[in-house]
Amino acid sequence: MLYVLIGIQASGKSTWARANAARLGAEIVASDEIRNELEAAGIDATDQGDRVFAIFEQRVAQLLDAGRSVIADATHARRGWRANILAIARARGVRTTAVWFQAPLAVCRERNAGKPGGPQWGDRVVPDEVLRDMWRRFEPPGADEFDEIQKID
Predict the structure, then answer these.
(1) Could you report the per-residue pLDDT of 3-49, keeping only the tens digit for each?
(2) Residues contacting 21, CB < 8 A, separation 6+
(3) CATH fold of the domain at 2-152
């Protein structure tokens, strides 16, 4: 099973992943963790989206090939951003579930402002204009993309 987390920054995706991975028997692959690994290797991950998601997709594919369920933790806020990960699952005959985080923008902004900051991706405060843009351009998951859609309010 592939669980694709979908929501803007600070909507609760990583918290949900950590809270549910054991119950679901799933491994978490998180884009923030990959960015942190790159930074630890001396690479500024800010403009490394293509590299981050190539690694992300490779890890998801390897886990699915090993018969593991996976929680794919990234924003996946646009259909195009989800296409590769869904193609990987389809090629392996794996069921897909969208876990759609519907926190209001005001809640995400408040959570974002309360992040500790610092060098770690996931702890960094996202610029408000980036958060607002992500909200405006968000594309909800569709029944044509996923076998199942779970909404998290």
Answers:
(1) 999 999 999 999 999 999 999 999 999 999 999 999 999 999 999 99
(2) 27, 28, 71
(3) Rossmann fold (3.40.50)
